[in-house]
Design goal:
Oligomer: single chain
Number of strands: 21
CATH architecture of the largest domain: 3-Layer(aba) Sandwich
Helix content: 25-40%
Distance between the termini: 27 Å
Number of helices: 16
Structural class: alpha/beta
Strand order of the largest sheet: 5-4-3-8-13-14
CATH superfamily of the largest domain: LarA, N-terminal domain
Largest sheet: 6 strands, mixed
CATH class of the largest domain: Alpha Beta
Length: 462
């Protein structure tokens, strides 16, 4: 019998019918989350984790009489940042720190956009709990950064000087698989999160190694065969190097910082795995949990229908591209076809020529405009140009070009973007996704893999 599946399409659901025998198995999506929790229950679960750290004293004990920096992720991805911020501030403040600050890991993202809610959340928590603290958001171009050295692969490590002033550094983070770092991990909160643009660019260039800088690979992985990831190695080296230094008496001192980590795998209404304590051990344990919750080893198919998930994952092709690396690359045979279900409505504050394509004008110019330009070149020439003229976001262009031209994957996009815009970037616009499915099913030349929330899972092709 035909089967109906629901895909996330922006804030809504899109139901599509699949003829009998066309689907290759069930809908692939992150495995069922834990029970939905109310706001108080989310806070209580975080407090419980903070009360039983692994390999570290409680953060409150570590904070006693010392300067404490709490590092949290920015708002580029939806998450529980408000809860993480509030509970870690409360826990640290209990210990009586000499100084307390929050650092927002904005990396190359615009702080005024991607920390705009975190700043009022911070002030709300401080006022509510009677906490005296400061807040910093990294501006990769304007913040004061200090060169610490180079990673094992030769990339610069240049980080916010203000971070280095703190004796205790506590990371608050939500994890999942990551399209080039292997896993979204606390390392990324330091590099690129608190790094200079030059540092970010030098490490991001390793993303051009698309055979190794990809989902499911990390230097923290328990499987030695999955540890080689030059992008992730640079981020790990950067964080570990930062923890060896403090800025004291007007100079860089090789004085180790004390470290702590609150790590979780979560949704907007659930916490499916949580840990606190030693940061390195947290990275190792998180990888095991992430693979258990959201990694799928599946036979490759000729066709795929995929939704990246709801906002912000579906807001622009720039972000939708993440699921190409996370899911499509592993799901499709060479020469396969993908139906991408993402409205790409963009943020309303962006100009029309940027909205739905990228999060800002600069990333649109580097990612999308270059993609349109490079499609007219031979692939080798385009990739050589990217390698020799690398800037941030060009790695995304590199990945899409390789998917389209080296793997010969045809990308069909059902969205709210004008068809003539989509076509310039090598995508084929789709007006009727059901008709697309019915036509492919009628060919009788292969099955279709259906994937929902593709930005939150990993498909490993067999």
């Amino acid at each position: 019998m035909p089967q109906t599946l629901e895909f996330t399409y922006g804030e809504d659901k899109l139901a599509l019918n699949f003829p009998d025998g066309f689907l290759a198995g069930e809908l692939v999506r992150p495995r069922p989350a834990g029970p939905p929790l109310c706001q108080k229950e989310l806070a209580a679960k975080i407090d419980e984790a903070l009360s039983r750290p692994v390999g570290r004293p409680r953060l409150a004990e570590m904070a006693a009489g010392k300067s404490v920096a709490i590092v949290i992720s920015d708002e580029f991805r939806a998450g529980l940042q408000k809860h993480i911020l509030d509970r870690m501030l409360v826990e640290a403040w209990k210990g009586g720190p000499s100084r307390l600050a929050v650092f927002v890991s904005t990396g190359s993202h615009a702080p005024e956009i991607y920390a705009k809610n975190i700043v009022p959340w911070f002030h709300e928590s401080c006022q509510k709990h009677g906490i005296a603290a400061e807040i910093f958001a990294n501006d990769c171009d304007k913040s004061e950064h200090v060169v610490l050295g180079r990673t094992s692969l030769g990339a610069r490590v240049e980080l916010m000087k203000d971070l280095l002033r703190f004796e205790v550094r506590a990371y608050g983070h939500e994890s999942k698989h990551h399209y080039m770092n292997g896993y979204s991990i606390i390392d990324k909160q330091v590099v690129p999160g608190l790094a200079s643009r030059k540092c970010i660019e030098e490490n991001h260039k390793f993303a051009l190694d698309s055979d190794h800088s990809l989902g499911g690979r990390s230097p923290w992985h328990h499987d030695p065969a999955r540890r080689a990831n030059p992008f992730a190695q640079g981020a790990a080296d950067g964080r570990l190097m930062s923890e060896r230094f403090q800025w004291r008496d007007g100079r860089l001192s090789e004085t180790p910082a004390e470290t702590f980590n609150l790590e979780m795998i979560s949704t907007k209404v659930s916490i499916d795995w949580i840990y606190s304590g030693d940061p390195d051990e947290g990275c190792r344990r998180m990888i095991v949990a992430a693979d258990k919750l959201a990694a799928f080893a599946l036979p490759k198919t000729r066709y795929a229908a995929i939704s990246p998930g709801g906002p912000p994952a579906c807001n622009a092709i720039y972000g939708v591209q993440n699921c190409f690396d996370m899911a499509l690359k592993g799901a499709l045979v060479e020469g396969g076809e993908a139906l991408i279900l993402a409205p790409c409505l963009g943020r309303p504050d962006l100009p029309p020529e940027v909205r739905g394509l990228a999060p800002d004008a600069k990333s649109k110019a580097l990612f999308w405009d270059n993609l349109c330009r490079f499609l007219a070149m031979p692939l080798d020439q385009a990739l050589d140009y990217i390698d020799k003229h690398f800037e941030l976001y060009l790695w995304k262009t590199d990945r899409v070009l390789k998917l389209m031209r080296a793997s010969n994957i045809k990308l069909y996009l059902y969205s709210e973007l004008p068809p003539e815009i989509i076509e310039k970037g090598g995508f084929t616009p789709v007006k009727d996704p059901q008709a697309w499915i019915d036509e492919r099913a009628s060919r009788g030349d292969g099955q279709l893999r259906a994937i929902n929330d593709g930005n939150k899972l990993l498909v490993v092709g067999e």
